[in-house]
Amino acid sequence: MSALQEQGERAAQIRPILERTFALAQSWGLVEQAGDNLQYQGQEHTLIYNPQSDQFSMVNQDGSCQLSWHEQLFLAKSSQEITDQQFREFQELGQWLDTQQVPQFAASEVEVPNSTARLFEQYASQGESTFKLAAESTEDFYRVQVDNIVYLISQDAETGDYDLKREDGIALTTADLNAWASVDLWLDELDERSLIPGSSKTSDWESQTQLADSLLSSAEFILAFRHDFEAIEYDQVQQSYIIGLDDYSIGYSPTEDTLWVQRGTEQLASTSHQYLDEDSQTLTHLYDVGSITPTDIYRFQEWTTWLRLKQDELLQQQSIEEFDLTEKNRLDHDFER
User: Fold this and answer.
1) Which of 176, 172, 24 is nearest to 107 (CA)?
2) What pLDDT, in 10s, does the model give residues 91-128?
């Protein structure tokens, strides 16, 4: 094997490792815009990706190594020689990525997941407005955020074909496809959701009470999820912990022990001294009831269904991490003995 062929083979193994590193940094919010490029600056190297030219580069912080690719082609002339030591270090990085469960990169051989068309049609059925990237374009787009990454889903009006892409221009990875598999599960769950409470057979007040029970129960779950897995800021003015969801806000006042939900500036429902009535399994002490619509309930059902899927994933991940930590401590103890 010639030296040039060997360098090409090493570069072919290194690029997926660097792409996985870039994808992980992107999921952690560490990728920044630098002119036309997207850039991740790590402790040992900087990764640079240009979505327009599809050029991907890595530069060591000490300048000892620079590697470049254009449309998956390794640019040997503009890259430095990959030494045995550097190649071993890249392999070790790949092994570390495996321990972090970062999936293999799947750049160009991806099929548009079924969830793309399903979600597009759901938005369309709800009357959500699309947008175009160019006035003469035949593609209609929706912008969607999944697991902190923004995607564009589209349908071509001429061909009827659906497409999925990341807004940041990075090629889809297996991690993206896994996220959209969760979207498929979410849509399945919504299809099987229970009927929205409240019916024409009940009085307006009884119907609104049923809607408020459902709305506040969902709000309580959403707040608990954010408390357990993310963060909730305390609003000094309203003296409440508040989170925003599109046009809605959910708040909890610890001083008054009150949970409330607003749409814009309109209070939809609130409850104090939260607890479940053991006989009816509904929230008691309801206030501000009267303006809730089935659309409000449906939106909260969408959010709680998605978060329950995420909760299962996060709890499973926590169990794995706790097991790994326990196993590491046991091995360290055995080694010390």
Assistant:
1) 172
2) 888 888 877 766 555 444 457 888 899 999 989 988 88
Instruction: For 127-186, write each residue's pLDDT tens digit.
Output: 889 999 888 899 999 999 888 788 999 999 999 999 999 888 777 766 677 788 888 888
Is 187 in contact with 122 (CB distance < 8 Å)? yes
Q: Are 157 and 138 in contact (CB under 8 A)?
A: yes
Task: Retrieve residue 42's tokens.
Answer: 């790590």
How buried is 166 (Cβ within 10 angstroms: 0-12 exposed, 13-18 middle, 19+ buried)? middle
Q: Which residues contact 48 (CB under 8 A, 6 or more apart)?
A: 34, 37, 38, 39, 55, 56, 57, 58, 59
pLDDT in tens, 243-302: 888 889 999 988 888 888 989 888 888 887 554 344 444 444 566 666 788 888 888 988
How many helices, marked H, and strands, marked E, lie in the chain? Answer: 6, 15
At residue 102, the 3 state secondary structure works out as: coil
